Amino acid sequence: MQVRPRSINNASLDRKGSSGLAFRQMAGFRCFLPGLVFVLLVLLALARPGLAQEVESGRHKAQAAAVRLAEVLTPWEKSHLGLGVGNAKNITLGRPLPAYTISRTDLVQARDGMLGGIFKETELVFWPVRVAGHQRAGVWLKRAGQDWQAVGVGEKEMAKSMALAQEAILPALRDREIRDSYLLRLLVLDWAGCRFLSVLVRDRMLVWPLPSAATMLNLKADFYPFLEIKPMLSGRSLD
Is the distance from CB of 114 to CB of 102 less than 8 angstroms? Predict the structure, then answer.
């Protein structure tokens, strides 16, 4: 599935906790400057407050697509897509993740402290599908004017990997002694054939390789500093 970037002010649905910087001494200001730059970029990223409502308006379309397939497919087909024993009563949706991308040029120039400003929104949103309370699959919605259209149901392995990653976020931040708020984004790099779940926190970004990236880059399921992964991506191309 190809993702076309739509250049707008970066936006985010997922913001955990609250953020703030305390400057006790003016002499320490320079030490906090990278974090301050990141916070400013986050504020710019949230400049389109209507995004959350836009994405949420597609919930009924995603729910209907998942339920419709669960009702008409054979048990083997449902299992293959990750819907398993799903039906209208036990299929629910998790929090949607708009898909973002980063251009090859921006990736090459990326450095700590400026990572939050290089994301570009795409036309796609991924809705995790929960069956009997467990994340098993997903629905891709694509913008169609002022509405949404279901363009894919399944992604069983990706949905499971995302659930595992989300459980590992707080332990990963604690291991790095990071206690700040963070932004969660689905990063889709079609030009490299890779997808990641990314966590932006202060002036850093951690990425979890989803199945496509894990296979192509030979990475295990874990969080990596983005700049550690960057050299592996810079030379890749499916164009």
Answer: no
Residue 15: helix, strand or coil by DSSP?
A: strand
Splitting the chain (239 residues) into consecutive groups of 10 residues, what average pLDDT does each group show? Answer: 43 36 31 36 43 87 92 87 85 93 84 70 94 92 92 92 94 89 90 90 88 94 91 68
HSE toward the beta carbon, residue 33, CA cutoff 13 A: 6
d(CA 71, CA 92): 14
CA dist list (Å): 120 to 77, 130, 179, 216, 239: 34, 28, 26, 23, 19
Whether residue 229 contacts residue 217, with contact meaning beta carbons closer than 8 Å, is answered with yes
Place of tokens 């054939």: 193
30 SS3 class: helix
Is the distance from CB of 203 to CB of 37 less than 8 angstroms? yes
Which pTM value belongs to this model? 0.75
